[in-house]
Design a protein that fits this description.
heterotetramer; A alpha/beta (about 290); B alpha+beta (about 500); C mainly alpha (about 325); D mainly alpha (about 280); B: about 500 residues; alpha+beta; 4-stranded antiparallel sheet; about 25% strand; D: about 280 residues; mainly alpha; MetI-like fold; 9 helices; about 0% strand
Chain lengths: ~290, ~500, ~325, ~280
């Protein structure tokens, strides 16, 4: 039984009826890493936000279920949903430079969830924080806990955010393009760190990215998204051997290979775009959308 | 003090009571009278500085200090600290008898020496007494026993009148010389009906009744005079019961509240007038006469001032010494049009000049000038209004650069013609605006005229001459509105001074 | 080292500002028509009286001479003597300053409270009818000048339902043996709630009139700053931790949104002190403003000079305090 | 991808529309005053003083909003008063904007001693208590339309200068400015072509707010009896005059107060609306 199960999740812009998610379904089992791939604007981070309940105010979920550990979050009253997410899920944000509160010390930003939401004793929470900072290979955890975000580098802050995400031993973590905002040298280390932490803690990880290269190294399964609709849902290895869907193949072709960076990149051909658009329109009609 | 919950509740309740009590108890059982006064008191020395010549402040001084001579509510003199005074036969000497058994507020006894010293101090240029030129006419001032004598260096028929007018106050010689000006300012003492208990500048002064005042102990034991410069705020004070007595509120508000309270409306020694300057179009008598004839003073008083005002045709009011009821400048628009036509002006080709006025300095000053300009427009006079501050008016007048017409109010609480028509119309005086020689020749001899009857008749003739040639436009004698709570009766003073010791419990 | 250099620079700029203000005021009020001497001329005074009085008040000397004399005096604490009240200006002005300061502080506190509540409610239910109502409310509060609010309050609470006192600063009959002129603070220190309540009853309406327009400004700016902060990532991250909207606004967004509003409050405070002139006149509250208007009407030149200089000193002092507060509150600068 | 801004713009539109509507109506009234005003604003009828508005008993149909104590028609005086209000708002507002923005731009962009000089000037100017300084100023110049505008400009230019200076500094730090400099454009050229366009939105917003403030300052000055001296009716003057007979003739004060309030409210809402329109940050 997978920890996270999403069935036919649909969402649209309030008042405008513009569909953002079209009947998205996917699962993430405990200890499994699923990639969520698509061009920017395809709605992949929208799914992550839907799960964690941080959708923008102008977006409304119009159908479907989000089952966390068997309980559909959408049926819960807001307060209960908040607490359940807070206790069992976590987010690794994209940009470490803006994801930490500039006027609060680092320590508090890691322990606050443990104490306020999970009801831990302060001492135990602080010990946990020190332990996690060590785990994410941060030297002098004592000084870092007392310092402010602006005193630390981008890479260091992302490590802290990862530590903060794993602090409550969440059963699910949503990583929303955690390395995009970092410079290349640091990206590799952070990816390895996330992989190691996930393996060690056996957390279900939903990895949102536009970089198929990252998916090949980190994920076991992946879903390919176009205009809010899942066009392919498969294992990683067979996908890289031969993607079934034309759009996925075009996407793969447009991705630079680490092995051969000089290879010329072919943009996604127009014909493929047309085909997948038609497919989306058919699916909408079938589902009763005009 | 540890604030426990109980004490907090108790004090909160007490506090609420106090703030409610802060409102003076109902009019009936008033033991502490509260007056909302309309001007601030800048200084306690009634003999120097701008406040010494400001008529509205004299009421405060007269509560604490006595003048040489007492002025009764009807402006007439009566024995005060001086029981008897006069010149000798050939008016070369003056003698004064000093009242005995009077004490200063600090208990020390009041003697003729205090009177002599006060006169010497007023005559001394160094003290900065603005009326030094009058007091300077007395020299070789000496006190013997309970009389004071002095030589008349230069005869001034009004010298004794100044003794119940501006700066005519007796100050404590021994105390003043001991504490000095600043000490006196901090703790002033006089012989008057009330003693200063506490003074908070621009806020309030608390007065305590002077038990052994020679004129009898005043009715109210303590009096608090709050300085409330805004008229609407003063009205709110008496209406909400936070003050018992107030003055100088808009006449409409006076009419509204006089039913529920005791309302007094008394003509006072303050007149509204328009100075005419002997420049440009004003040199043409037709223009001046038309300007005077076109003003319907009674309608302006009735409509703008709710009827509170006495129309006047000369600078003398009915209760002044040189008042002559027979001098008339009636409202006659046709005559005005005719006079203007004689000089080639008409409604289509109006005479143009500028008229200056203050705004908000006297009741409805600006509206009155607007009304007059409106009336003038109907006969062919186009006057452009320029508003200026009272400070600028004094400067322009001192430099004789006023516009052809300028509104001003003229106080004269002694009612003598010299301090009204005299100083206003006599060329050489820095205060006059009309400087034509014919008027100077007529007024000149009156300054030193020793025969009182002849002097008064002389001033009456000057007033008639001025009216015939329209050298000035007298408008009205102001009426002072006073409102008092039901439990207080007030005896208004015609000088406009609001005197707490004239207030009795109803 | 950097800190000391910064302080020295700050002292220099303050000195320049104060001298600049002194010179400008000195010239402006000497150019003002209506010299005080003319005001003292009673009927019948002659020309040499004018000369005598002018010399007595030292107004006969040339402008630069007068300034040097005045500046010389200031160096050892003598700001000249007021013409109307013949008291030393410094004593007069310092005697009245506490009243205006207390009124301004009370107005600021009320404004910050109202502004804060308005901003937080506006943010809590942003993009809704409530926020639109708040915007209109702020617009109304801003578009009516404080003296008109004063009028309305006098009519409402002074006359119709006499709950508050409408003039003066304290009921004269209350025994008052205070050392300083800071009645409000001293009555708290001395544990005199009766006096304290009476003072509040007198000061509430004028400070409310001053506070209403100010609270609109603070409310609008703080709401804008809060709304912008609400979009930042660390706020969204905090929501994923399970915190409710109220907690997120108060603990995460507010501390960061306050900073930009702080400088505004500092500047508004100086305008507030300068702006009490009319309200003090309306409520006959014996502060610096009331004194200032009388000084101008009576052309009391030394007193005007003293008051304006004092305002300049307060202005620079408040700016200094605001900058220090900004550095202390803003962690980035604290460890700069 | 359409996003949330649509909804916000619609509500802001309503506010903008209403504010703009009132101001347009006002401008129309001001321009057409001589023709549409039922009576000459200065014509007095001393016997016809304090007539109530049309719907109150004892009203005179000729005077829709009643008359003041001198018998002048309140409605006509409000229409003519609109003229003064808009002149004060336009002239004082623009003059303040021009002076303040130019100095702010110079200080913010040129930096160096220019900035030092202008910043000191701003500090000195802000150290003056605004209301007191304007009273002193008008005492020097004497009341009148020109002096009032001068007083407003003298008090408020620092507000513009401070904001524009900060904005110019922020824009100056942006890379697009550096690239413009690299492209060989002179300092002044850069300032005018690169910085100014981005600072203009702030200036426009501040300008509308300043217009509202100018109308309020005129009302404050007439409360202290320093406003325009001629017979020309101004709202502030009418409010000050109406104060004394508030209980007998409330309409003399209330109607100009409503006109003043709606005008200032419209200016502030216009300013807010423009700020939303120009402000890209608001998501």
């Amino acid at each position: 039984m997978s920890f996270l199960t999403i069935r036919n999740l649909s969402a649209e812009l309030k008042g405008h009826g513009v569909p953002l998610l079209r009947r998205v379904s996917l699962q993430v089992a405990a200890g499994e890493v699923r990639g969520l791939v698509g061009e920017s604007g395809a709605g992949k981070s929208m799914i992550g936000k839907a799960i964690l309940g941080i959708l923008p105010r102008a977006v409304a979920i119009t159908g479907g279920e989000i089952l966390l550990d068997g309980v559909d979050l959408l049926q819960l009253p807001p307060a209960q949903r908040r607490r359940r997410i807070g206790a069992s899920a976590a987010l690794i944000p994209q940009d470490p430079l803006t994801a930490l509160n500039p006027s609060r010390r680092i320590g508090g930003q890691i322990t606050d969830r443990l104490v306020d939401i999970l009801g831990w004793q302060r001492a135990r929470a602080e010990a946990r924080a020190r332990e996690l900072l060590a785990e994410v290979q941060i030297a002098e955890p004592e000084r870092v806990l007392r310092s402010y975000p602006h005193e630390l580098s981008g890479g260091m802050r992302q490590r802290i955010l990862i530590a903060s995400a794993f602090a409550a031993e969440p059963r699910l973590i949503v990583a929303d393009e955690p390395t995009t905002a970092l410079d290349v040298t640091v990206q590799k280390q952070i990816l390895k760190l996330i992989q190691a932490m996930q393996a060690r803690h056996g957390t279900a990880l939903l990895f949102v990215t536009h970089d198929l290269g990252v998916v090949s190294k980190v994920c076991q399964k992946l879903s390919v998204l176009y205009a809010g609709m899942v066009v392919e849902d498969t294992e990683v290895r067979p996908f890289f051997a031969g993607p079934k869907h034309a759009y996925s193949a075009a996407l793969l072709a447009a991705t630079p290979k680490y092995t051969d960076p000089a290879a010329s990149l072919q943009p996604v051909p127009e014909a493929v775009i047309e085909a997948v658009r038609r497919e989306v329109a058919d699916a909408d009609r079938r589902a009763g959308h005009g | 003090m540890t604030i426990t919950r109980r004490t907090l509740l108790k004090t909160a309740a007490a506090g609420a009571a106090v703030s409610a009590l802060g409102l003076p108890a109902g009019a009936q059982g008033i033991d502490e009278l509260v007056i909302a006064y309309n001007v601030n008191l800048p200084s306690w020395d009634p003999t120097t500085g701008p406040s010494a010549v400001n008529p509205t402040i004299q009421g405060l001084y007269q509560s604490v200090f006595d003048q040489f001579i007492l002025q009764q509510p009807d402006l007439k003199p009566a024995p005060g600290l001086l029981t008897e005074w006069g010149w000798n036969e050939d008016k070369t000497k003056v003698h004064m008898t000093v009242r005995e058994g009077v004490t200063w507020h600090d208990g020390s006894s009041f003697t003729a020496e205090d009177v002599a010293w006060s006169l010497q101090r007023a005559a001394d240029p160094a003290t900065g007494n603005p009326i030094q030129f009058v007091w300077g006419t007395l020299t070789n001032i000496k006190a013997e026993g309970n009389t004071v004598t002095a030589d008349v260096a230069q005869f001034d028929p009004t010298i004794f009148k100044w003794m119940y007018f501006l700066t005519g106050y007796v100050l404590p010689k021994e105390y003043y010389t001991r504490v000095g000006a600043e000490g006196f300012e901090a703790a002033p003492i006089g012989t008057g009906p009330y003693m200063v208990e506490k003074f908070e500048r621009d806020a309030y002064v608390r007065l305590k009744a002077n038990a052994n005042y020679w004129g009898g102990k005043p009715d109210f034991e303590t009096v608090t005079i709050k300085f409330v410069t805004d008229a609407a705020a003063r009205v709110a004070e008496v209406e909400s019961g936070q003050s018992h007595v107030t003055l100088e509120m808009p006449y409409e508000e006076f009419d509204r509240l006089k039913g529920a309270m005791n309302g007094y409306a008394t003509p006072i020694s303050d007149i509204g007038m328009i100075f005419l300057n002997d420049i440009d179009v004003m040199l043409d008598p037709n223009v001046r006469k038309a300007a005077v004839a076109a003003i319907d003073k009674q309608t302006i008083i009735d409509r703008l001032l709710s009827g509170y005002g006495v129309a006047i045709d000369t600078l003398e009011t009915p209760d002044y010494d040189a008042y002559d009821a027979s001098i008339k400048t009636p409202y006659d628009p046709q005559a005005a049009v005719a006079a203007l036509a004689a000089s080639g002006y008409s409604i289509d080709n109006p005479v143009k000049f500028k008229i200056q006025t203050t705004k908000g300095f006297k009741p409805k000053d600006y509206e009155m000038i607007q009304a007059i300009v409106g009336l003038w427009r109907k006969v062919g006079i186009e006057a452009e209004i320029e508003v200026y501050e009272i400070a600028k008016h004094y400067e322009l007048r001192a430099a004789d650069q006023l516009a052809p017409a300028a509104f001003y109010n003229w106080g004269n609480s002694v009612g003598d013609p010299t301090t009204s028509t005299g100083f206003a119309m006599f060329g050489p005086s820095p205060h006059s605006v009309w400087d034509s020689q014919d008027l100077i020749d007529r007024i000149g001899p009156l300054w030193g005229e020793k025969d009182e009857a002849k002097r008064i008749q002389g001033w009456k003739d000057v007033d008639r001459y001025i009216a015939e040639n329209a050298y000035v436009i007298p408008l009205l004698q102001y009426v002072q509105p006073i409102l008092a709570a039901k439990g207080v009766t007030v005896t208004p003073h015609h000088s406009g001074a609001l005197l707490p010791h004239l207030m009795k419990r109803a | 080292m950097r800190l000391i250099r910064q302080i020295l620079l700050r002292m220099l700029t303050t000195a320049v500002t104060l001298i600049g203000v002194a010179v400008i005021v000195f010239v402006v009020i000497r150019v003002v028509p209506g010299n005080p001497i003319a005001m003292m001329l009673p009927p019948g005074a002659t020309d040499e009286d004018v000369l005598r009085l002018t010399a007595l008040y030292g107004l006969d000397k040339s402008l630069p001479q007068q300034f040097l004399i005045w500046a010389g005096g200031v160096l050892h604490g003598d700001f000249g003597t007021s013409i109307t009240s013949r008291q030393p200006v410094l004593a007069l002005v310092l005697d009245r300053l506490p009243a205006t300061l207390e009124l301004s502080i009370m107005a600021l506190v009320i404004a910050v409270l109202i502004g804060g509540v308005v901003a937080l409610t506006g943010t809590r239910s942003r993009d809704s009818g409530i926020e639109a109502a708040i915007d209109i409310g702020n617009g109304i509060a801003l578009s009516i000048p404080d003296f008109l609010w004063g009028l309305i309050l006098i009519l409402l609470f002074g006359v119709l339902l006499p709950v508050f006192n409408i003039s003066g600063r304290i009921t004269p009959s209350l025994p008052l043996n205070f050392v300083t002129n800071f009645y409000l603070f001293e009555s708290i220190l001395r544990g005199r709630p009766d006096l304290w309540l009476d003072l509040i009853s007198h000061m509430f309406l004028p400070s409310l009139a001053l506070a209403i327009p100010l609270s609109a400004i603070i409310g609008q700016v703080l709401k804008q700053s809060l709304k912008e902060t609400m979009h930042l990532d660390y706020v969204t991250l905090s929501r994923t931790k399970g915190y409710g909207e109220n907690h997120v606004i108060l603990r995460e967004a507010l501390p960061n949104a306050i900073l930009p509003t702080l400088t505004l409050v500092g500047v508004q405070f100086t305008f507030l002190i300068g702006g009490t002139v009319i309200i003090e006149r309306l409520f006959s509250y014996e502060g610096l403003g009331n004194l200032a208007i009388d000084a101008v009407i009576n052309r009391d030149l030394p007193l005007i000079q003293g008051i304006v200089i004092l305002f300049a000193v307060i202005f620079t002092a408040v700016n200094l305090v605001v900058d220090l507060l900004y550095a202390v509150l803003n962690p980035r600068l604290r460890h700069g | 991808m359409a996003d949330g801004r649509g909804t916000i713009r619609r509500r802001a539109g309503l506010r903008l529309w209403l504010a703009g509507g009132w101001l347009a109506l006002l401008a129309l009234a001001a321009i057409l005053a001589p023709w549409i005003a039922p009576a000459d604003p200065l014509a007095q009828d001393l016997l016809g003083g304090r007539l109530p508005p049309i719907w109150v008993r004892g009203a005179d149909p000729q005077y829709l909003l009643g008359t003041d104590s001198l018998g002048r028609d309140v409605l006509s005086r409000i229409l003519w008063g609109a003229r003064i209000a808009l002149i004060v708002a336009a002239l004082a507002g623009t003059a303040t904007a021009l002076i303040g923005a130019t100095l702010g731009l110079l200080a913010g962009f040129l930096r160096g001693w220019v900035d030092l000089l202008i910043s000191r000037l701003i500090d000195i100017w802000m150290a003056f208590p605004p209301v007191l300084f304007s009273i002193l100023l008008i005492a020097v110049t004497g009341p009148g339309l020109g002096p009032i505008i001068l007083a407003i400009v003298v008090i408020d230019w620092t507000r513009f200068a401070r904001v524009v200076r900060a904005e110019a500094m922020a824009q100056g730090a942006m890379d697009y400015v550096a690239s413009a400099r690299v492209a060989g454009r002179g300092r002044i050229g850069t300032m005018l072509r690169e910085i100014l366009p981005n600072v203009v939105p702030t200036i426009v917003v501040l300008l509308t707010l300043e217009m509202g403030i100018s109308v309020i300052v005129e009302a404050i000055l007439s409360f202290v009896n320093l406003s325009i001296s001629t017979d020309q009716p101004t709202w502030g003057g009418m409010i000050a005059e109406g104060r004394t007979s508030i209980h007998q003739a409330w309409w003399v004060l209330v109607f100009p107060l409503i006109a003043l309030f709606l005008t200032v409210l419209s200016f502030s809402q216009l300013g807010e609306g423009l700020k939303d329109r120009f402000d890209p940050v608001l998501r």
